[in-house]
Request: fold
Amino acid sequence: MAFDDDFEIYNIMQINELEIQNEINITNEVRRVMKQEDPFALSEQQFIGTYRLSKVLVQKLMDELSPFMSSPSTITGLSIQRKLLTALRFFASGSYQQDIGEHRGAAVSQASVSRCITEVANALNVPEILNKYIHFPSTIDELKEVRLGFYEKFGIPGVVGVIDGTHIAIVPPKSDEPIYPEHVYINRKGYHGINTQLVFGHLKHDNII
Reply:
């Protein structure tokens, strides 16, 4: 009787192992198929709808960020292109990281999505990149140029910038955080966020505060 019980337990364990392995194989197969899809094979309209940037701009951004990002050290490592597109998809949609990872242009785990976002965000914030695209007029000549640009473009004199703001949702800190407790991040809309102000020039984003 004891032998029969042990044999039955052994069979159950074997079945469980086979089921787990089958799930792993299915997951790997799905990822293998998804990896074959090239985001740049999308139409321009589909590409912009997915990443909010054109193919040309993404390629240009990849060229600029590549020196500040790590190349894959193994065959299975994520390429710079894949990391950038994964992060851009997250920035464009604001969706959950797991959903981003399951997108056909990513096919990576949630943890990998998180690392992609961090690496791309850090690359965007290096001084060589940040100061190139985000700049506030600091001289009289620069201010005159902006004022003239607004006047020629919109017919409004004396303008050196236009302001807008938005709430960026965040994961709140702990309620017992001594300096910035959780409750100070609750905005008027009822969720946790950071109130961000943007200043635009006549040509591009001149400053973000």
The chain has eight helices and three strands.
